Amino acid sequence: xxxxxxxxAIAIAAESRPPAELESYRLLTKLASGGMATxxxxxxxxxxxxxxxxxxxxxxxHLRDDEDFVSMFLDEARLAARxxxxxxxxxxxxxxxxxxxxxxxxxxxxxxxxLLRSAAKQGSxxxxxxxxxxxxxxxxxxxxxxxxxxSDGQPLNLVHRDVSPQNxxxxxxxxxxxTDFGIASASARSIVTEGRxxxxxxxxxxxxxxxxxxxxxLADIFSxxxxxxxxxxxxxxxxxxSNLATLKAVLRNDIPExxxxxxxxxxxxxxxxxxxxxxxxxxRYQTAAEFAxxxxxxxxxxxxxxxxxxxxxxxxxxxxxxxRLLVRxxxxxxxxxxxxDIDTNQHRVSSPPVTTVHPRSGPGAYEVDVDLDxxxxxxxxxxxxxxxxxxxxxxxxIAAVMLILVGSGVGLLLARFGGG
Length: 420
Description:
Blueprint lengths: L7 H7 L6 E2 L2 E9 L3 E9 L5 E9 L1 H4 L2 H14 L10 E6 L3 E6 L3 E3 H10 L6 H19 L21 E4 L4 E3 L2 H8 L18 H4 L6 H17 L9 H10 L5 H4 L5 H10 L11 H9 L8 H40 L11 E4 L6 E4 L16 H34 L1
Antiparallel strand pairs: 1-2, 2-3, 3-4, 4-6, 5-6, 7-8, 8-9, 10-11
Helix pairs in contact: 3-6, 5-8, 5-12, 8-11
């Protein structure tokens, strides 16, 4: 499978600027970029001006030339398209032409990783009851995928293989959804690349996967355990200075109870996390549903979707408002104009830094510079919308006028009393 290197859509995609039109989809603006793909917000076109917002993940062009990757990608994407569940981001379409891409439902919100980063920047952790709700939703979606059967009634044994904070979407509706089944599964089977370098989110891999054993649903359960541990503590569990050191940590490092790092974590939650993180798969929860039930039945009740929605708006409201503005502008100006604005305002996604953790004073408080592994992240958005600037100017003008009027009144009073 060889593609022309001379130009066309592949050359454009190589610069992360695919054509503004991909068959029946119109690209509006870039959301994020990672090691394997770039994610765009797009619109599905229909008759009579119908448009539906979608997320379009465009694979980098070198993957388009890898026959094994393309074959695995298409197979896994077809399987993922069969999953219909409220806690799974639906895969709507997959295309392999000059540009390899797949289309998903657009969920207004952001990744769980973005939510963790937002809390960390304010020197806090996401509240336990919200973490638990997000994990229950993600596990419920995973269970639906794990239990998927084919038209012949036989189990398909679908495994995500890349559960991480980036692949859990937390919506403004308060519902969390697992995403990225297609590309995650394909990429996981192609971890070793040229030069024997490991790529992917190695810090969330189960030990059996590091050993090269076949991935099962139990590997996904271990990965959810790592996400839960990190969300509760605000610290990375296995990530080290290199992928090799990280993989060794997954196999050998002691796994402390979350409460030993974050004392506010209850003992019941400690026990649940440690069971999920057992290096012996036979000792873990055997299904994602069993894991979710354990969280649901804790004395610490999970947050309602309304509470989660309110928290998302509180932590990510400025980012989401800016994104809505970019979408409106992109609809008018097209992808090229929107990307020029993004470049001008330095909204581009940069390579994530290594996570560093600095203990702070106070129980359970940590200052964490988190960019939880790789793949897509949240664009860096400057706070303050154009409307806000205008309102501040108007308030300042009114205040100045009021000061002048008050000053004039005081002057008149002084003149009258002085004259008396």
